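Researcher: Here's the sequence for the chain we discussed earlier.
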Amino acid sequence: MNVNVYTAVRMQQYNEESVLTTLGKIYDLGVLIMKRLLTLSMTVFLMTIMSACGTGTTPSSNQPQQEGRTTEQATASPSETLQGNAEMKVHFINVGQGDSILIQTPEGKTLLVDGGKKAAGEKVVAYLKKSGVTTIDRLVATHPDADHIGGLLDVLNEFKVKKVIDSGKDHTSETYIDYLKLVDQKDIPFHIAKTGETVALDPSVNIKVLNSGDTAPTDENNDASVVLKITYNQFSVLLTGDAPIDVEKQMMQNDDVSATVLKPGHHGSETSSSMAFLQAVKPKVAVLSYGENNYGHPNAAVVERLRKVGAKVYSTEASGDIVISTDGKSYSVNAKPWNGKGVEDASTISTDGSTDKSDIKININKAGSEELQSINGIGPALAEHILDYRKTHGAFKNVDALDQVEGIGPATLEKIKPYITLK
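Model: Thanks. This is the structure I predict for it:
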């Protein structure tokens, strides 16, 4: 992150008091990220020196190695490396309105993807302990939203974590700063995921990054979601974070997105899971991770589309913790399919996943957080930034002034313009 450029932009957005507060957060964020980058640089330098001296030294497991775009275990297909009937388990932990997924590989390695909100931290810790987890080999923070990283604070405090994988999307929220501080204090190797690379964990399992902050189509948090495709022999699971339809289109163009199990993006929101994407994934199982909410999750049209492509739909809100066990050939689910229909009127939603709301405009000078989030392209974090801007600067004088809000770039502004008004 270029701290000087970022600071200059932010200074135009806040009054003197807000600038001081924000600069403090940005400074902390910049220092933490620079520390992690310096650690990585020093490791690469030392490895180069040792290699030149002919030592042939292999870096120890606690050194911050980067997962490359090609890895040794990725040279063979998972079916070629499968031995015996070893089992992999995929746990969709019920954290309410949020995400937290635990993967236990055939060789006993652990991958934790997100941790729900802060309030879910104790639940996640207890669940991990109950599942026999003592060490987390890889911890993935898909993006900075609080309903994905909040619970990771308790996890980082309770477990040894060998490596943290992040989207690289910076944020100035207290939760995100606290998360980075913990990673820094505990000196945990920190890696920024790159689209197209594989994550080294278990030689019988292929874990590929299909999206991250480096290829996000806009600067919105959700677009930077780390998307993972985890393949074990003939079984695969696609974890999409809060990736929206624009990201789905990119992934379909660049990768094979087909998967046995899909965690639909953004808790079943209408902003994700287009029909084209679901037809490309062809999931046999879809697990919706959500809790009681006012956002309309899961959307009725999304649920309908999932069933149209032949997926059995499961719900953490209805079934609690959901565990899928597989030997790489067959699989079992410890819950019954959900017979719910989701919320909202599916007739207002087109087959490509977009909502026809062109005749409904939201007054951005009066709307609260919930109403702002009903606008296509605005999530919880962006709604918070709009409210913060209004509080500091007053009402927006024109629609184009929205580009002064953190997280709203030209692409996002064009996306939301049809749905907003100043009157």
